[in-house]
Amino acid sequence: MGFFNRFLLFLYALLVALASLGAIALCLNVLPVPMIQNELKFLLSRWETIAAAAFLFLWSVHMMGASFSRSGESKPKKKDEPEAVLVKTANGEVRVLTGAVCALIEKCAMGVFGVREARAKVHSTAEGEGSLVEAALDVAVDDDQNVGTVSDYIRGEVDRNMKQVLGLETYKLAISVTEIARPETAARRVR
């Protein structure tokens, strides 16, 4: 349900709450009933009352429809945006889920000396007959390693595996160093 429908629902609930308070006031004789009956006779003779009642009816039907609609629950996928990387082979096409590509990139990064942690995000869009793959890799690096050198090693490992395992020649890889941490030292034994 969108913002506009939520706002309409709020107004509708407020109107129903006020009407129920009015009914409670009439039942407890807080308001004089003859005066209310006189005002009600006047309102029922006006065309504006019919218009307001028709508007409330249409509003109610709209809110019932909005309550049954599934739009807004999750972001709908675009038709040209695949959920997987499309790899062309001699015998046909293979769809590799983006989660598998993330795992491959993270495994490559973790295999590089000096990398403590790696998190990858992969986005794939259809391009011609294949897929355009864009990957973002966040890594934590030991503070005794050169960030540029580690980044070059990561790119080399990812490039080798993307070509060897997936057969992808072109892709984009953005590496971000999110943390520079002290390398873990071996625990000393106290005798």
Given this structure, which CATH class of the largest domain is correct?
Alpha Beta
CATH fold-type name of the largest domain: Alpha-Beta Plaits
CATH superfamily of the largest domain: Cation efflux protein, cytoplasmic domain
Average of pLDDT:
81
Residue ranges: pLDDT <50 for 5 or more in a row?
Answer: none
Number of helical stretches of at least 4 residues: 5
What is the second-level CATH architecture of the largest domain? 2-Layer Sandwich
Total number of domains: 2
Number of strands: 5
What are the key terms here?
3-stranded mixed sheet, 2 domains, alpha+beta, 191 residues, Alpha-Beta Plaits, 25% strand, 5 helices
Layout: helices, strands, pairs:
Layout: H1 3-27, H2 33-44, H3 47-68, E1 84-89, E2 92-97, H4 98-110, E3 115-127, E4 130-142, H5 147-166, E5 172-181
Please provide a written account of the structure:
- The chain has helices at residues 3-27, 33-44, 47-68, 98-110, 147-166; strands at 84-89, 92-97, 115-127, 130-142, 172-181.
- It has 191 residues and is an alpha+beta fold.
- It folds into two domains: 3-68, no CATH class; 84-181, 2-Layer Sandwich (Alpha-Beta Plaits), CATH 3.30.70.1350.
- Strands 3-4-5 form a three-stranded mixed beta sheet, covered by helices on one side. A two-stranded antiparallel ribbon has the order 1-2.
- Strand 4 (130-142), helix 5 (147-166) and strand 5 form a beta-alpha-beta unit.
- Helix 1 crosses helix 3 and helix 4 crosses helix 5 (147-166).
- It is elongated and about 90 Å long.
- 13% of the residues are buried.
- The model has no long low-confidence stretch (mean pLDDT 81).
